[in-house]
Prior knowledge:
Chain A is mainly alpha-helical. Helices cover about 65% and strands about 0% of the residues of chain A. Chain A has a domain at about 65-190: Tetracycline Repressor, domain 2, CATH 1.10.357.10. Chain A has 9 helices and no strands. The longest helix of chain A is centred in the N-terminal third of the chain and has 28 residues, at about 10-35. At the C-D interface, helix 6, helix 9 and helix 10 of C face helix 6, helix 7, helix 9 and helix 10 of D.
Amino acid sequence: MTLAxxxxxxxxxxxxxxxxxxxxxxxxAAGAVFAEQGGAVDVREIARRSGVGMGTLYRHFxxxxxxxxxxxxxxxxxxxxxxxxxxxxxxxxxxxxxxxxEQSLTQLARNRALxxxxxxxxxxxxxxxxxxxxxxxxxxTRCQDAGLLRPDVTTxxxxxLITSLSQAVRTTADTQPGQWRRILHISxxxxxxxxxxPLPEPTSDTPNAxxxxxxxxxxxxxxx
Amino acid sequence: MTLAxxxxxxxxxxxxxxxxxxxxxxxxAAGAVFAEQGGAVDVREIARRSGVGMGTLYRHFxxxxxxxxxxxxxxxxxxxxxxxxxxxxxxxxxxxxxxxxEQSLTQLARNRALxxxxxxxxxxxxxxxxxxxxxxxxxxTRCQDAGLLRPDVTTxxxxxLITSLSQAVRTTADTQPGQWRRILHISxxxxxxxxxxPLPEPTSDTPNAxxxxxxxxxxxxxxx
Amino acid sequence: MTLAxxxxxxxxxxxxxxxxxxxxxxxxAAGAVFAEQGGAVDVREIARRSGVGMGTLYRHFxxxxxxxxxxxxxxxxxxxxxxxxxxxxxxxxxxxxxxxxEQSLTQLARNRALxxxxxxxxxxxxxxxxxxxxxxxxxxTRCQDAGLLRPDVTTxxxxxLITSLSQAVRTTADTQPGQWRRILHISxxxxxxxxxxPLPEPTSDTPNAxxxxxxxxxxxxxxx
Amino acid sequence: MTLAxxxxxxxxxxxxxxxxxxxxxxxxAAGAVFAEQGGAVDVREIARRSGVGMGTLYRHFxxxxxxxxxxxxxxxxxxxxxxxxxxxxxxxxxxxxxxxxEQSLTQLARNRALxxxxxxxxxxxxxxxxxxxxxxxxxxTRCQDAGLLRPDVTTxxxxxLITSLSQAVRTTADTQPGQWRRILHISxxxxxxxxxxPLPEPTSDTPNAxxxxxxxxxxxxxxx
DNA sequence: GATGAATGAGGTTTCATTCAT
DNA sequence: TATGAATGAAACCTCATTCAT
Lengths: 224, 224, 224, 224
């Protein structure tokens, strides 16, 4: 009746636009809720906040998991692009790497579900992982070409490092915000090409008993 | 024996033998289940696995939380003692620190719930945190006295570092077992007193904009 | 399908518009179950009888207590209105009071949970108590203005009297239905303005030692 | 067999004395707990307070119900005897009745489980009911013989009246202690032989429509 | 297409009673 | 015989997902 007034043709469009708007609203609300409370929230909270019914939500996302994945992929991707862009514009390769880590972790610190996903698999999806690896590859190569980064550090190492640091962010989020920067600082120092001892074999599951895991500086030390 | 000692027997009344056995069975089963599946398992699974009824379980542990806490505290403590003992017997302070990290993480790698607890608060209980800090203090002091460890690294830093590395262990447990050792290696290199740049203030929540977060080697560059 | 038949009337395939009907069904079933077995019944029994799932029940009433309260308030209110209406239409004030007691107790006699609530607090809710007091006030005033009711009888006395008589109803419900009317009769006689001895102070917690609790007729008696 | 041993072996006696002491302790503890919290308490609370184990408790009383019944019967009986004794020693029959009601209710006011039992069946057991009826018979007869009590009041009426008044006691126990005495006063006035209208038939379940339930005094009234 | 009520398995916890020590 | 740990059937409540309107 009242809907019939809508000009005949654009009815479809209007409807699709509506659907699209709904989808966006859901994603936005879900993003906020997931970021605040993690992935274990009640779906109703999201439906409520986005102003749609449960059915609508489940029409767009057949599963809570799907919704979560979609949200995370989107956030992850946009974040990756932004951060990579910034890194690209930084001339000094090391600074670029440093900034990238810093910004990545700052971003993660704000999103509980994203950290959870990071923690679980390192990325919200395979596609995301691929993109992420590409970015890391770029940063790593630049630094290694400049001789600033340990030559045997791999992309996987960097990924794992961020993953692990994201944990530090999460842990200290409430009580010691900012403490994670000290750990980051330490890790970055460890990445520097100043450290010449080769890293352990990536495939090995047992510690290298013969060689010391790290090489403490021979000539340095307060006691000497 | 060792387990009995941990509970600090007040000798008020001798617990019935089978009660103690049941308690042990519950703790063991819960330990296994929690380690495998994390803290979100059904309590019934634990009751089933330990061969006791629900009531028995709840007689010993009034709450699922209590059970989890008990199990984790026990595992954490025994692990801490063992690992610290090994570190004490190592003469070289740096090696002691290295081994401690190595063994801590190896242990954590096997226990999902323990990692969860570590992630959440850094330890399963305040008492555990205290003990943990004592151990870390010891290791840290030895290394710093020997001039091997950055002088401004704090106990909290070490704790956070392990927490964050435990994440790396967890992430790579299934697909890349052992890769976490590379990250550990990097982090330990970063801890070395060879790195002289001061760490950022622990209280600061914003990156230090003036000083570079890390000091890349001065004389290196792409052209070299 | 078979379930649908059990509920006789409504097609069980209704949903949205039937939310209200479901709610009514729940209230009705709960009313019956509570009336029969009191407030300590299993919620599942109510869900089963009303033909809805547990979730539906808990959607409408977040707590068993809520359900009970709703049911009782509803029954109490409807009963109060009906009974008061009848009393209003009776011209003779004393007859109105008498009928009101009679009908109130008849109603209570049929509802175990209602009696429980009455016993506990005199009414299922504060609002109910307010309404109830208003009705009693009305009845009492009419009777006292007509000089038929002891002048020092208060509304609280009447409430307490009904509460206590409801107990008599309950006690004799199964074995001696109707016996409570004799007690009611006696109580009403005691309320009559024929009895001139003042009632004990409402605040006093100890029996009035000086004056006899009741005034037996001096000059009457079989032996005289 | 077991009986034969009773002579020779004091060990048995000692044991039996122990058992008897335990039994007494259980009954005493149960009495206190039931009085305080009603019949729905956890059996463990009783075991704890009486200082015996669950097994011992269940050895003496195969069922919680049995324990409750035993306790109540005992309390009821001792109370009945005491109160009756006091009534017997009172010369004035009406005063005896009055005091009996007063004391009965005061006693009931202190015992939650007893009220529950009273409410449920009028007495904790058949035997108790018999004894109680005997006492009431005595009191009633004395009063009726003296022409002080309505001649058609039966023992059952008195019992029901107390039962119902016990409810009033319970209701006002916390907030309006003592208010029940006003109701009692009213009821006793209604019992007086001053009221000449016959009570309704005990067997009738329907109100007597022809005759008014009570007879308000024709000639009295404020307005006249 | 949108809505939100309905579903019901699954979670934790309690307690009368039994039974091994 | 006394003990109190063990039992396990309910009890209450949650929430991801479906489905009639």
